[in-house]
Amino acid sequence: MTTRNLTASDFESTITSNDIVLVDFWASWCGPCRMFAPVYEASSEEHPDIVFGKVDTEAEQALASAARITSIPTLMAFRDGILVFSQPGALPAAALEQVIAGVRGLDMDDIRSQIAGQQQGAPAAR
């Protein structure tokens, strides 16, 4: 599997219709983004069961803004449609593998329970 470009039109459907999705927010003028790209691409070939998406923050400014991207590169990981990891900065290959292992190892029933508990404890919107 290689990386796939994500846009505002397919971002949400990609995240919600796949088990694990990693998203690299980047720009062509960004040096650290260019350094991270081959690491990310190589990892996508090692993990064909994971969707590796890329969002060009220049072409998809509204999407980057909606995702609250303030620094690039930023890596986000989604599992079962839930954001479970978000960190700016280029990761070395070993750190990216740790993120992937951590995301794979999550107890999603526990995560959903925590989210439900937080939503129940939140004050009602008026």
Automatic annotation (TrEMBL):
It comes from the Bacteria. GO terms for cellular component: cytosol. GO terms for molecular function: protein-disulfide reductase activity. InterPro entries: Thioredoxin (IPR005746), Thioredoxin-like_sf (IPR036249), Thioredoxin_CS (IPR017937), Thioredoxin_domain (IPR013766). Keywords: Disulfide bond, Electron transport, Redox-active center, Transport. NCBIfam families: thioredoxin (TIGR01068). Residues 1-105 form the Thioredoxin domain. The keyword Transport applies. Belongs to the thioredoxin family. PANTHER family: GEO12009P1, THIOREDOXIN 2. This is Thioredoxin. Pfam families: Thioredoxin.
